[in-house]
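Section 5.1 Outputs to date
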Amino acid sequence: MTEPGVSGIVLVVLAIATLIFLPLVASRLDRALVVLLVLSWANSVTIALGPANLRIEIFALVLAGVAALLDPRGIRKLGWFSILVAAAAAAWLVASAFASATAAEEPVRSYYMLGMLIAGVGAYFLVSGRVSDPVWVVRMGTSALAVLCGVCLLLLVTGLTGPPLLIPPQGGVLWRVRGLALEANLMGSICAGWLAVMFYWRRRLGRVHIVSAVVISLAAVLTNTRATWICLAVLGIALALTYRKHAVALLPLVLAIVIAVIAALPSNSEQESLLWKASNIFSAQDGTGLYRIRTWDIAFDDLNSANGWLTGLGVNSYPQRHPIDITNVTEGYVGNVWVSTIYDSGIIGLILFALMLVLMWLRSPDRLGALPLFATLGISFTFTNGFWMLFPWIYLALVSVGPKALIGPSDPAAGFFVPRLGNAVPQNEGFSSLRR
């Protein structure tokens, strides 16, 4: 649900920024892609257009599309994997549309959500096909997310919990980092996923970005989301395997920081504390774990009763059948991308969706470096579904390209008042200075 406070603040800032920077952004595609990336993190902010509420990221996608049309450079040559990804995505969307037309109780609502999926696929191909300097985009995105996370941490430390960047858990006093995301779980996915993107581009990042990674990691821990913690552990293993000599020295420090953070943030409710969640990280016997299991069971019962296992029941049709969830508080929601895909488009849709992701991974110039992102999204979205938003599609696009695939030379005059260094970064800087 959209928070009026955060929507109002962000919309006022965006209105002012649009008047000042719209000509600057529209004239350069990479600038528009950075705006798209940043606003994809503000998925709690919507604008009402008649009966529909459109997230602000959709308007940023339109802006990026306009910038792409104005950009004089062409698209990259489509390889076989790009064509196969497009074919798999199209087949998945067609299967979803068929299920929505034939099985959804409210087809119009399903078509609306299908449009969000189409926008995500469009964002993937826009970024992967037209970004000219992905290094600069990643650096700008890292700085922006670090600032957002830093503000959240500052509010948490100072006790200024009034701004809607933080939310309290039900029944507890432990404020969770949410940023501008729809919920804390999505903020955790945003942070962990971006750290995986940074891992992919680690040889092109400077030492200052290591500091940014620490700030983003702390914010990710304080989203109080167990799936995010598992993702951070996966990323830690990837870093340890990549920089083996330094892992032995850094591991005790990382553990000390994590233990200190957990111990310093108690809660009135045992099941809302970081310490309880850390000690019950894989438990599904109570709390949100049990809630999700029950929701999945209901989804499976719906599929059985409607014989919908093969073709599904329509895109995001679960809340159409369950307008009130098992808590009798909010609309029903399947917090699992895999269960949700089966529910929406059946086993056929799940196979096509998984095939699309595998082909996206095969399309990456550095498949080993891209693997942590796919693992992170797979783990995060097993406990929530972020593919309705644009950020995971943009993340996947940023690991589908490499420095060798840049279109044209880096343009120092094209940045937001900062030089675009592009391929000129010495290989002994930043993450790459940590030798194996």
